[in-house]
User: Fold these one by one.
Assistant:
Number 1:
Amino acid sequence: MSDLRIRLARREDVPAIVALLADDMLGKGREDASDLERYYAAFDAMDVEATNNLYVVETDALPVAGTFQLIYMQGLSLGACKRAEIEAVRVHADLRGQGMGTRMFDWAIEKARADGCRLFQLTTNRTRDDGQRFYDQLGFEASHVGYKMKL
Amino acid sequence: MSDLRIRLARREDVPAIVALLADDMLGKGREDASDLERYYAAFDAMDVEATNNLYVVETDALPVAGTFQLIYMQGLSLGACKRAEIEAVRVHADLRGQGMGTRMFDWAIEKARADGCRLFQLTTNRTRDDGQRFYDQLGFEASHVGYKMKL
């Protein structure tokens, strides 16, 4: 894992990112890799939003070994706080349990801090028991209830 | 409450919005209305982000009777879903318990749907019991744990 590199996603990464998103206990029922056009369109929409960045993790063995999305949100609340939110975190099945998630979060947290964020937030589905242990260990506080509504 | 109007916040609304943010069980320890400059700077930063919009609610009696922030986040996950997140929701103390929160949420959900979002999300502090009842009643699903880390 020493050769891990994190960089902004490029358009040609989209199929590999979608494959990572789909190779997941919840994602497998939600993604459709046979319809890549809508994912390319989403990538293009994100690409012009300076506050919304998609990252991939490269290793020597795997060009797309992991992915996450980091969104910055300036607000007035919390003393005019800019916050960072992380979404769509995935580690390639071959590399799970080897510390890559921690490396990704350390990097994302440091990046957000360097970019002036004073709060880092995420939600994780209640059914992801491993996720909750992971975030507890990273030092996150499970202070909030995460509500969702499909539109 | 029939005269309620929702509009984008303007720079001159900042002091009234900060007063609303501070008049709250958690906000009162987090906001500092004596230092408005940083709130104006935050407003200016938000104002250039097309995906990050601050709203106020007007009534005939109160020019700033409520406020909320609505952020859109395009992503690849969930079938290339664009999601909406609501933050910093406040109702003026004189108007609580009269249905204004529901009107604000109905408006925000409809706006997000019209703008192409397919998921609407928020987190609420576990100590806000009233908040959780409110979101349950609105039809949100408490499917996630909300993690925060101060940077």
Note: Strands of chain B lie at 5-8, 52-58, 66-74, 82-91, 119-125, 141-150.
Number 2:
Amino acid sequence: MPEDAEGLAEFAYELGLLKRVRRSGWWHAGVSDPESIADHTMRAAQLAALIAAEEGADPARAAFLALWHDSQETRTGDLPHTATAYLAKPDPRQITVDQTQGLPWRSRELVRGAVDEYESRQTLEARCAKDADKLDMLLQAVEYRDAGVQRTDGWIDSARKDLYTETSRRIAEAAVNMSPLSWRDR
Amino acid sequence: MPEDAEGLAEFAYELGLLKRVRRSGWWHAGVSDPESIADHTMRAAQLAALIAAEEGADPARAAFLALWHDSQETRTGDLPHTATAYLAKPDPRQITVDQTQGLPWRSRELVRGAVDEYESRQTLEARCAKDADKLDMLLQAVEYRDAGVQRTDGWIDSARKDLYTETSRRIAEAAVNMSPLSWRDR
Amino acid sequence: MPEDAEGLAEFAYELGLLKRVRRSGWWHAGVSDPESIADHTMRAAQLAALIAAEEGADPARAAFLALWHDSQETRTGDLPHTATAYLAKPDPRQITVDQTQGLPWRSRELVRGAVDEYESRQTLEARCAKDADKLDMLLQAVEYRDAGVQRTDGWIDSARKDLYTETSRRIAEAAVNMSPLSWRDR
Amino acid sequence: MPEDAEGLAEFAYELGLLKRVRRSGWWHAGVSDPESIADHTMRAAQLAALIAAEEGADPARAAFLALWHDSQETRTGDLPHTATAYLAKPDPRQITVDQTQGLPWRSRELVRGAVDEYESRQTLEARCAKDADKLDMLLQAVEYRDAGVQRTDGWIDSARKDLYTETSRRIAEAAVNMSPLSWRDR
Amino acid sequence: MPEDAEGLAEFAYELGLLKRVRRSGWWHAGVSDPESIADHTMRAAQLAALIAAEEGADPARAAFLALWHDSQETRTGDLPHTATAYLAKPDPRQITVDQTQGLPWRSRELVRGAVDEYESRQTLEARCAKDADKLDMLLQAVEYRDAGVQRTDGWIDSARKDLYTETSRRIAEAAVNMSPLSWRDR
Amino acid sequence: MPEDAEGLAEFAYELGLLKRVRRSGWWHAGVSDPESIADHTMRAAQLAALIAAEEGADPARAAFLALWHDSQETRTGDLPHTATAYLAKPDPRQITVDQTQGLPWRSRELVRGAVDEYESRQTLEARCAKDADKLDMLLQAVEYRDAGVQRTDGWIDSARKDLYTETSRRIAEAAVNMSPLSWRDR
């Protein structure tokens, strides 16, 4: 089992890259030093759980799916929206298979299963996780707008489109009409 | 229910602060622009799941506990180790109660339950999450060492002490003897 | 005396941490990479001297008090306003006693005396230094507002409250109604 | 007196620039995001006081001189060492005269007097302040070396040369042979 | 020829400093972490080529002149506008002579010739390069304005003055009336 | 022609993105805040000219080709080496065609011609530019190594492979055996 531990450590080091890789869309919006993939992933996972709780889905499962939803970006980076015209979106499942090759089988199946379920968008938990991905972007756009960034409308609008759940739509509605600092005033 | 959505959005904005707050221990170690709480939380949650999978615990639950383990730091910041001599560690449960006051009850109970379970350290999942908190610190210390930081020994040593699970001890052992870049050579 | 020199060097290295620790309130305001404690301390000390000069107090003494007013934050970090509900404010004098333990007695008494006088707020110099602490925050809030940060009002308002000296009140009044760049136009 | 307040606010805004301007020498040493002038100034002022205390000089005065020693760099930036071959060092007194033009006379004389005394290097306090300027550079060089920067020798060596006071020479000696983290081990 | 190679490598390392040195004017405008000299130089060179193409000048030559127009700042830093009152602008040709001393003669003459031609402003290519220097500043000012910076007017106005070419004047006119993100909407 | 000016401004704004996009390979190497594409491009263009001068090629043309060699990354980002297993490298010529669509024909042909020539690698100038791309990476790797980054060997080794020109091979040889600060000692 020492080899298993090495495989786990190696994978964890690869995941550490997500702390350094920046979300490329924000550069387009004019932010010079934007959040990391990890920053985005944490709140997306938290939001997935909250949405799932309200929607009657399994909160821990929804959060878990969100936790791996961008983990493939260690290998490809965060492809900006404008890239789609020039390259075929890489297959997250294939990358995950390669990333998890050195893991002991329980861990391996765990991560692959999460990516599969998320990408298939069949379960309510996967849809909560996908909504959370978009909602975090919306909230972050409002936060950047509040920090001075002028042209966040495109990000806010695209985040609001095609949300799966009613809860997400309501959070989106509330979020755009509210100060990110309101929690401090209670 | 619009008020519920507002409560959820407000809480999510508060959590966004974890993307900006830095992990204060690394300033002590000499790092000038260290990782955020969110950066740390993401990998801790991922590690919690992997450890739990190997230990026969519930991976999604372990990850879920890790996801909230530092969420109280929106209100107190990340208190450095040296602060313990001068102030009583604030009670995470109390802060969580306040943070979740405006949430609809399902979400509220969900988050409070997670913090309670994590802080009690009674379940195997809570112990996996706690180990993951320490392991991420160890891995990050090695990563900073690899980036040039000379005095990370204290962080590495303290992370290795008092780990609950055998899996975590083995990952720690493997991690200190290995390059953070080895995954790229496969 | 070589041991004295070591004690002085050790204390100076501890103070160096103030160059890295960020002012946590600005994260709340939405600033992603805010000023350091040292940044704040320098201008607070300069302002303390200017206020003292106008108020008929000892400018060098007022500046000197301001120079140490946050020096305890090497050990506790910069506790945000929201932390006050969850922990008792640590005693600056006690921390200073510990920090200066290894200093030769003249230096030790010097620093302890400055922190005592500042915390007691009895002398005019201490009040000028306290006002300078607030004024620098006000000026910085205006500077961040000028850089795009939308919600600085809370910081500006709280800085203007309870200023001890007439000079500080007048500077505050002038500062909020003026461009931070006006000096370049002369 | 409202005009006086405006002059004071205007000067304080100009001084705020020192929080943003970086110490250019560290770019030469390979540091990509180095400390600000304000970071340097705070510890230099603190060191000046400690040196003065040990040397029997006036600590508050020495700190006060150090507080203004680079304040002219709002107008010229921090000229790197390599610039001296290509331009005549600007006169700090002249810049100070211009910077303080709009100040009420007490403040004006205060700042001009400090810069005059510092530049003349005639008083023991001025020499303590000058030594502090160099000592902070030495300590910072060791701190950057500890963070991985390989070629700090030139900065350390030049800082140790031509120190005026015995206390400074001893602190320099102690500092180069010691860990910047030793204070945490007490 | 090994010595030649060493001279070339040495010069290239010196030029690398331009990636770290920040454009000092933006600190004055309130930007806390502004672009590097290299950032500015790249787009200035690209703009010089485009302007030259439209003006019937040699695009590659114009770009080439722009490529070296700030290369002397490795030695002096980027002197802010406010410095001109206090020091004589250093002679770019003299600095270039010193920087290129260790180069083999072809390279040496090449770089010196470019700086000479640029500084003389006699050729159309030199004027296109100078216009490009200003245009990049104007575009960057608009980009910072779009990121929240309030007081960029001075930079925009000064960039528009005294442009040599009609093409540059037209680009300036178009740029101030347009969104920096419009290219994404095509 | 006002429409032409708009097309030119629009393209220039798109190019400005290269100042913000980071070189992704350095994140893999452990650098947390690496250089921009523009930083890299400037020195690559300068190096291309120097190599061309020594190789008897046209220096301005070689620099010009280097100036556009990564300009397509506004749309795709900087794809890391590990991405090649998962997606087909996008065609730079196609992206350039799209980017330059709104340009007046002289500018349009100019940029397209440069990208074509660079990608074909048929001319000596194109080969000098390609070598410069690699050499800048090698120099930057040494610079990061000097700033503490431990695992730069892979980048240095890959940069030295398959250089087209003898001059580049000699510069590479000299650069790895030399201090990036040696120019300051002359």
Note: Chain C is about 65% helix and 0% strand.
Number 3:
Amino acid sequence: MSDLDIATLQRRLIDFAEAREWGPYHTPKNLAMALSVEASELAEIFQWLTPEESADVMSDPDKAFRVRDEVADVMAYLLQLAGACGVDVLQALAEKIERNEMRFPPGPAKPR
Amino acid sequence: MSDLDIATLQRRLIDFAEAREWGPYHTPKNLAMALSVEASELAEIFQWLTPEESADVMSDPDKAFRVRDEVADVMAYLLQLAGACGVDVLQALAEKIERNEMRFPPGPAKPR
Amino acid sequence: MSDLDIATLQRRLIDFAEAREWGPYHTPKNLAMALSVEASELAEIFQWLTPEESADVMSDPDKAFRVRDEVADVMAYLLQLAGACGVDVLQALAEKIERNEMRFPPGPAKPR
Amino acid sequence: MSDLDIATLQRRLIDFAEAREWGPYHTPKNLAMALSVEASELAEIFQWLTPEESADVMSDPDKAFRVRDEVADVMAYLLQLAGACGVDVLQALAEKIERNEMRFPPGPAKPR
């Protein structure tokens, strides 16, 4: 894991958008829409792959580049949306894991 | 910003899935699909809101809870997918910001 | 195939929305967002299924109901969006098939 | 509305896929994933538009072409998925409208 930190990257994304005057476009609604579009572009890489091919996706350099690129796009919009809504992503995730630990007891189960 | 760190949360997600024996379900393809579904659930909160209402979404306690909850779900699947593919999310994002700084010169422009 | 026709159903959807005064909500942007959300709800039914289980999805009455229900929701928003944009869905599809017949020569190939 | 009919177009889509030997790729799961991806590509056209710009989307010839093209793609995958699951799209929609007429009494209300 790199020693980059999430707050610094979130700051760079804000500066990047401000330098291009994207404020009026970056409503929470539009950022949520863009996040969903990027998540679909990530899914698209996998849509015709068998489960086995999908497990091996990173052995294809072109697909590996696209996976990294789309993971970055999803993360970028997630951080921008969270910033616009005042949500601390890691805190929200920690709380969700705690709720899930109560909802789903350990042991074999189908995920939901 | 909380002092939680992303590697610790990623580890907790792995442990959580292992304790429930979700390994066979968590192919990169299925995780990408689940990520896209969660991103749409986040978008759904905003779908009938005006831009102004969307900017004010966190003033409604019920919607604010849903936003935090779905942001957490998107982050959870993004980290699990990235882990399954050996992608360092923050590194990928830093590289993408650098590519974007070359592609989009600063100054007013419509986002793409 | 039923003898229902698409124009009649499109008309019923318009009447339904008008009776509830949904006009201001039903911008093309919001309808496109709602369509995408419904398509994800349809995908969600399949997200943890193996290819084999997905081929057999309709043998489970609960899943079969959900598939029919979400197919209907996708169709409803597609017809409403197309109506709002003045697009004839069947005409657009016929033209797209013709373009695809030129782009993809017959013979074994991976879909894109 | 054109005098094309849905059953004929559904037949052409089947023939098209068979001629390219896409059967193994066209599981219900993969078709649902592809449908969701295409619905997001349609949403992407609208993501940075204001409500007013979205209402006027068809006055831009490039965007108008993309809207028609993506509407066709969504319809194509919806018909293929419905065919693979034995669902009659128009019948499913008619039944859903009837359920909605019972769930949502006429009169002003926010859509859900």
Note: Residues 6-102 of chain B form a domain with the Helix Hairpins fold (CATH 1.10.287.1080).
Number 4:
Amino acid sequence: MFIRELNRGKCKTYLLGCDRTHRAALIDPLKENTGRYIAVAAYHGFRLDYIFDTHTHADHRSGSWDVAEMAEAKVVMERHAPAPHVSMHVTNGDELEVGLLRLKIFSTPGHTPDGMAICVDGHVFTGDALLIGGTGRTDFTGGDPGQQYDAVTTKLFSLPDDTVVLPAHDYRGNQSSTVGKEKITNARIAGRSRDEYIRIMNNLGLPFPTRFRRRCRPTNRPSKTTR
Amino acid sequence: MFIRELNRGKCKTYLLGCDRTHRAALIDPLKENTGRYIAVAAYHGFRLDYIFDTHTHADHRSGSWDVAEMAEAKVVMERHAPAPHVSMHVTNGDELEVGLLRLKIFSTPGHTPDGMAICVDGHVFTGDALLIGGTGRTDFTGGDPGQQYDAVTTKLFSLPDDTVVLPAHDYRGNQSSTVGKEKITNARIAGRSRDEYIRIMNNLGLPFPTRFRRRCRPTNRPSKTTR
């Protein structure tokens, strides 16, 4: 199995490939790096079957639609995603194949209603539900700290402790964690009751992202010029 | 036949490929997206034989010279193009092969003296001569509305009605049109006499593009660092 993060920054985009069949998927591409993703896929000889957005992003514009068009792949989002240009909607428990890899979908609402995590062969791409040492904020429209608590504690924390956690963001230079480590050390959620977690999340008082309104449009909605 | 627009914006760059031989051409590349074009070509296994500039561009810097150098392709422009680094000049009626595809050239002066359109297998890349619902402005140096009228009405409009029109620009979100549709609905030229068209084009009163002077240099002139 091939996994590589391609942005080298705070927003993380993963190329996930099956070494034996050279089929691959791209997870959470940024609009400004689409050429890079296709270049890296081509360099390693991968063909992209699926482009995933793990949720509707508020902090960057998605490159899913552009990459899907240029690379002949399908855009996949969770069934609550409002994006009109999604090729395939998935929901909790669904499975998808990428070559010989078997991807299992977990619906993880809370940060947004359309959050999902993707689990494959001892690794889980957690989107903005579970971050390293934290969780995604729940104060945007449609956010729900109770739902997020349930998704993280009953779904993601039920995975084996050595499952590698690969989040959609990290602001402190971390690259990965494990489910076992997050269950014990995650400052936001480890050891908290549901009520306690909701109280914390409702009182974070975080500033809104720059240009929030523009970026919060449905992720895969192409710009006017490409419709 | 493979056709894909690669900028996803107002300026359009097309990758045109022969599926059977994996030979390809690139039409109107922008200087800022050269890596993306080569990535997409590599991803699909295409080798670039030709890079076309359909005319000397006033609104963006051409990436033709850069892509040609990096991808070992030839830069092709119409015979009136002043650019000193064109590998091959073509003129009305010329034909070029890209794998099993046969490209026919139409000289289409009017927007610039070196305008050309490229017709291949039921599709025509019209550059800035014929746009969707419009035509390219004719008020730059060397522009000529009468010549443009003749090129559009006697050459492009003589193609079969179902020929797909793929322009170099679109500012309203359109992706393609057909010759038949433009003959009837094109607001600038459909149903107009030559004199009427010249009068309209000479009185559009459009502002000049930002940084016009810098961008209007010969398209394929390399930067100082590559001379």
Note: Confidence is low (pLDDT under 50) at residues 213-227 of chain B.
